[in-house]
Amino acid sequence: MAIVDRHIAFLGALRAAGLPVSLAEGLDAAHAMVAVDIGERESLRAAYAATVVKRQAHREAFDSLFDLWFPRAVGEGVQPGPERGSEVEVTGGVDKSPRVVETRRRLAELVFDGDLAGLDQLAMAALAEFGRLPGDGPARWSPATALDTLTPRTLMAGLVRTAAPTDAIDERDTRRRFTERIARFQRAMRADAQRRIAEEKGVEETARWVARPTVDRVDFLAATTDDLANLRREVYPLARRLATRMSRRRGKRGQLDFRRTIRLSLATGGVPIRTRHRPRRPHKPELVVLCDISSSVSSFARFTLLLVYALREQFSRVRAFAFVDSPIEVTRYFAASDDVRAALARMEADGVRFLGGGTNYGKVFVDLAAKHPTLIGPNTALLILGDARANYLSPETGVLSDLAAKARHAHWLNPEPTARWGTGDSAAPAYAEIIEMVECRNLAQLARFVERLA
């Protein structure tokens, strides 16, 4: 494939993965390629990244696709060069065969020395030797099998003892440094497996499943622990914008500014044809959040609690209620912690778990109105987060209507596709007639919802 064709195909793969790459940025990337030595792979990666990657959240998808379209090697790749390195204590390991023992020793030396190029080469050689699955036909590669054989993380104890840190701070820094190098080795092995698969099945086909969705397109209902960690960083700017939108008063004009109105009337003979008003001052409203934490939306539940945590600093007061079939106030868990992960851990330790039986939205609304009659007022924004699946129980739309009528703003974010609303036990259409309900399956949709509030 010619370099121009590869360039065009690479940009197409980036767009297919959700990265917004314009025609002008593609031309910028082509000009950048002229300015660097395209034989220097990392220089080429940096040139592409500088011209087509706008957000750090998109970098992982970019790197995965770059490794496919501009692979480090072809075929068996480059084998490790002459051995060198420090004498390192090698710990752990279950497989005691000579080749595994030797590879683990070499890995420990490279990690200890910080030889990143050597780690990349060893990853390729280790995958070729330990990651090939048995069977007829085309080779199948499994980095997980190779990593299970080598167990690189069990080297940590020996590495730390060899480094002999002087104090607790030095030990923590040493562990962090070795952890990053081991993680690089693991990433290099996975990247080489993808390269080998791409050589056999084709780059275009492999790119369809290699590139993970960008963080703003990760489906909340299928989010992994790593996805939630990335979402945590992205949700804070959205929380600030959401609070700003909700803090705006209804109407565009404030109180009459009598002095400015009289001055303006001098131009029309003293007749106040036009008036002047004082600008309305933004204020922090109160926020009440209802979070469905049933098993059907467990990943979404964790995201919504991340959102609640980010919103707590943007409103004058935030009260959060988690529910399956009865609302439980969880505000105190967030107020007592500066770390959302610690708050979630305490909730689960106290029995507020992301599991449960069938959701009963109607009972939740009835209990909320009965037990907290003054919870929602004219300065309150009500936000409901859930899939609106009521398990064929009474939806109690009248009670929800009363709650929404009391609130300053009322919105419902539903993680299910709109096409599924009203199917099975979904009460979404009935609730949508009372309260604005929007599909919110990822950060991109949440951002659009926030912008619509303007």
Brief write-up:
This protein is of the alpha/beta class. 52% of the residues lie in helices and 8% in strands.
Tell me about this structure.
- There is one protein chain.
- The protein has 454 residues and is an alpha/beta fold.
- The protein has 3 domains: 3-69; 98-203, no CATH class; 225-255 and 284-452, von Willebrand factor, type A domain (Rossmann fold), CATH 3.40.50.
- It is 52% helix and 8% strand.
- It has 19 helices and 8 strands.
- The chain has helices at 3-16, 23-35, 41-52, 59-69, 98-113, 116-130, 143-150, 156-163, 168-201, 203-210, 225-247, 258-265, 298-311, 331-335, 340-349, 361-371, 397-406, 428-432, 443-452; strands at residues 132-133, 140-141, 286-292, 317-323, 327-329, 380-385, 409-414, 436-439.
- The strands form 2 sheets. Strands 5-4-3-6-7-8 form a 6-stranded mixed β-sheet, with helices on both faces. The protein has a two-stranded antiparallel ribbon with strand order 1-2.
- Helix 18 (428-432) links the parallel strand 7 and strand 8.
- Helix 4 (59-69) runs antiparallel to helix 10 (203-210), helix 6 (116-130) crosses helix 7 (143-150) and helix 9 (168-201) packs antiparallel against helix 10 (203-210).
- The longest helix has 34 residues, at 168-201.
- It is globular.
